[in-house]
Amino acid sequence: MNDSTIKLADIAHARSGDKGNHANIAVLAYTDAGYAWLRDNLTAERIAEFLRPKALPGRVVRYVADNVRALNFVLYDFLDGGASLSPNIDSQGKALGLAVLQMDLPRPSNVDAMRRPTPST
Amino acid sequence: MKSIRVGNGCGFWGDNLDAPVLLAERGQLDYLTLEYLAELTMSILALQKQKHEDAGYARDFIDVLGRLAPLWRQQPGLRIITNAGGMNPLSCARQARAVLDAAGLTDRKIAIVAGDDLMPRLDELLAAGESLAHFDTGQPLHLARQEGTIGELVSANAYLGAAPIVEALRLGADLVVTGRVVDAALTLAPAVFELGWQWDDWQRLNAGVVAGHLIECGAQVTGGLWCNWRQAPDLANVGYPIAEIEESGVVRITKPEGSGGAVNFETVVEQLLYEVGDPAAYVTPDVIADFTTLQVAEVAKDVVEIRGGQGKPPPERYKVSAAYRAGFSASAMLTIFGEDAALKAEACAGIIADRLRRAGVQLNRFHHELLGANAVVPGVFPLPTGQMEVVLRMTVFDTDRYAVERFTKEVAPLVTSGPPGVTGYTGGRAPVREVLAYWPSTVVKSAVVPIVQLLES
Questions:
Q1: Which of B18, B29, B275, B412 is most exposed by smallest CB count within 10 Å?
Q2: What is the ipTM of this complex?
Q3: B259 and chain A: CB distance < 8 Å anywhere?
Q4: Cβ–Cβ of B380/A64 closer than 8 Å?
């Protein structure tokens, strides 16, 4: 990371899991500004490119839920057979959300408006 | 306005055994739900039932029920709904009866919900034109069987909806023990029953499914897994979730007073999207829920309110989860310490693979990974350098049980016959497990007959 990039974790949180052999990664923007920017910039292709080394035989589809500032990525046939057949330690894709939060992204000009607001409690 | 409080004290088989008691003690609940069944749990239970006809259900529930009994005596209005019945709701209910009777709770009525098990009727269904085609590939089941691409089927269950549970409650059940139902039905059913919701009221059914989906994984909505977990106080004492559901369909997610963890916008939306495909079409047998039309807001500390939301009529078909035998597997680990730890771990894996080859053992699959060196998402992050320790984890698959067993016997010898620094092998030989593979499908609803039955006292 340098001055021209941010980490996805700077402006979003995430959770991931499995459905059979498919994985899903929900990326959740902290702010409206961050969500608007991620909607334009965090494409299915970018997620696929980031995870390609792990092996990505299937397609990646992105769904949006504007009401909760969520981008939901479904990674088809990603889990090498899924829970019972995959030899990988993360056979259910539980850690994928944290992995994509480490993704470097080009720094948006208004990044300070995208960071997590200080919690009130 | 009438409302009910539904708490979920168990998110999966293996979840914390004290959580249901703490939740019932402090949650001021009308209903306690306990969820035990993951995608492949039914097939594991099916194999247990094959061995013992009285087995095939989540035995943890019996233990939990015993712990709950003293509380239940003080809270006679509490009702409990669980899918612990698995492949054998009747045996589970009988065992529950014995526990309750022993605790003096002879007046609590138990009902079972079954009919989800399609195995006894498989030939009949196939003959009637139900192909049980694979949900993703579209391949009909009989073709996969003909081609030998799948092994013997051990289980096939339809995911029933909330209606049979509502029927069980109408019969006066205090405890409902089900087989395979959609997880959200455990919560939707009491809402329909208590709040007088109609089966074509898509907006309210949507709210009930959202409530159920949010609490079905237990502490995952109350601070567990939360990315900002450092702000969830006292996770050791994490409160399990409560859905307060109003007659109008407004839902509030919260947790018991004085418990640890947190319920806020972030914990709720993380869980809202958990294991979801299209958030505008979350399919259940009772309603297709639309999560994109909800309004989610923090309304008090540890209280998140969800309103709005539109549902759509459900599909004509039930989801089916089937499983077939797919050979055997084992995983074993060695800890490798010292300079060049990763290099030595690679050498260990190579030596084991080579010894197996020399012994004439050919495995369908031999996979190794180095935990501590980005094994979780291999290749995505740069490898660490100068690492002093890694864990070598090896996993093998084969259709021949003997070949897998032989692998488990080749691991310990590395402690004395491999590179220096091999340690941490004190757990004995790795167990061989039978592999059950998942075959998702659907079946027309009219071909499935849910069974609701009160257990005789």
A1: B18
A2: 0.96
A3: no
A4: no
